[in-house]
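re: that chain from earlier
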Amino acid sequence: MFRTLLALTVAVSATVPTGSFAADVGECVCPVDADAEVLCLDAVDASDGGALGFLTEIEGDIKVTGLAGYSSASEGVGLFAGDDVVFPYGSEALLNFAPSCQARIDGNATLVVRQDGICACAALLAPKRGALLPLALLGLGAAGVGIYYLIDDSDDDPVSP
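^ sequence. v structure.
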């Protein structure tokens, strides 16, 4: 009788979740730049090395880069730690991440998937606006020169007849 009760107690305690992942989520930090927008942050069992999330409802030519190389995203494509997903202007997809996070991602964004121990996250990188400043200044300069020549009314006569 004692052995049966002991075996039953061990079996029940082995199948009841301890909640250690849920408790650890509060300690998770997403290892990305401070200006990134964290969409999903969760504690995961990464022992199998499986996908942390996947994309559905894909519209547009979305690209996935990571350890597996560079490829176009397809319905249900797995996202792994270290992957970057580039969403060009006009594209969108639904991110399904870890056990409980969904987020719609619109175009003109870069999604990064990162993992640190049992903590996994998906975050949108902030656009690099500083890279466009030199191009904007060049465009304004060219426009200024063009406008100057349009309104310049000094018609010089040709030197030779």
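The two ends are 123 Å apart (CA to CA).
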